[in-house]
Amino acid sequence: MKKFALIGAAGYISPRHMKAIKETNNNLVAALDRFDSVGIIDSHFPEADFFIEPERFDRHLSKLSTNGKGVDYVSICSPNYLHDAHIRLGLRNGADAICEKPLVLNPWNIDALADIEKETGGKINNILQLRLHPSIIALKKKVEEESADKIYDIDLSYLTSRGKWYHISWKGDYEKSGGIATNIGIHFYDMLTWIFGSVKENVTHLLEEDRAAGFLQLKRARVRWFLSVNYDLIPEHIKAIGQRTYRSITVEGEEIEFSGGFTDLHTRSYEEILAGNGFGLQEAKPSIEIVHEIRNATPQGLKGDYHPFCKNNG
Asked: Among positive and negative, which fits the CA dihedral 45, 50, 55, 60?
C-alpha cells in the first residue's frame, strides 16, 4: 500500500483524486488546503492529518520521511500558478508528484522541473486523462492506420458555463490561471497533438476573459477551436434541454462521441502511474507551449480560417 499526501483538498477536482487513491487500495495520510471546508475527506480517509498552513504540512512530510514513514506520492490539485512550487515541495520530501493540468504555466518551468527530477530522483506525473479515454484511443488508432499524408479538418467547441464566482476566483485571474485557454483548453490541446502531431502554426483569433478562439495547423490536422465560459454563447438547442455545457469535436465533419466515460479516468490515471506508466514532463510540454503562445498572442480578429462561433456576440 502506497502512502499519499494531497495538496488542494478543498478544490473541485480533489474528490476524484481521493477516490482514485481509495480505489487503487492506497492510503491518504496528509492533506493541505488554506480552506478548511474539507469534510469530503471523511468519505474516504477520515484518519488523514490535515493542515491549512503549507509550512506545517511541509514539516510534517519531512518528519515522516526522517522517521522512515515518508509518503510515496504527493497529489497536487492546487491553483495552476502554485503547481510548480507544490511539485518541488513533494519531490524535496522524497515523494513522486501527481499533478493536475496544466502542469505549469510556462515552458521554461518544465526545463527547471527536469533539473529537480535529476536532483531528487523523483518522478513528476501529469494527469492527462483524455489519453486514456476509449473514444480518443480509438481515434488515435484510426489516424495511425490512415495514410501518413492525410490532413484532417477538425472543429473543437467547448463551452462550459461558469457563474460570476469564476471571474472573482483565482480562475478568473490571468496571472494565476493562465486564462481561459490554459484553464479549460489545455487537455484538448494535449489530446490533439498526441493524435495529430506537432504544431506548425498557432493563430489566435479571439482572446477575452470569457472566450477564446483560434486555429492550429498540426502535422496531420487543421484545427479550428473555440472555448467559452459564457452561458449566453451556449447553442440554443443545448439550453432548451437544461444543459449548461456544450462539448463537440468533429473530425472531417463526423462527431467524436466522448462525453461519457469520464467518471473513472482519474482512477485509470492512477493505475497507470502506479504501474510506472505515467505521463511525464516531456508529454506535458507541447500543450504548455501552445497555451503560452496563445496567452501572449495578439488576437487577429475574424480573419483567415476562424471558428464559426466567433461570430456569436452573446
From this structure: negative
Q: What is the pLDDT of residues 87-128, one digit of tens each?
A: 999 999 999 999 999 999 999 999 999 999 999 999 999 999
Maximum Cα–Cα distance across the chain:
62
Average pLDDT of the chain, as a whole number: 95
Give the bridge partners for 279, in sequence order: 126
Residue 259 scores a pLDDT above 80? no
Q: How far apart are CA 58 and CA 151, in angstroms?
A: 49
Q: Helices 180-196 & 281-295, crossing angle to 10 degrees?
A: 130
Domains of the chain plus CATH, in order, are 3-126 (3.40.50.720), 130-261+278-311 (3.30.360.10)
User: What's the CA dihedral at 234, 180, 155, 203 to 10 degrees?
Assistant: 140
Residue 134's Cβ-side half-sphere holds a number of Cα atoms within 13 Å equal to 7
Amino acid 260: pLDDT: 65
Q: Residue 196: CB partners within 8 Å, gap ≥ 6?
A: 143, 152, 154, 218, 219, 220, 221, 223
Q: What is the CA radius of gyration of the chain?
A: 20
- Range of weakest confidence among 146-150, 277-281, 283-287: 146-150
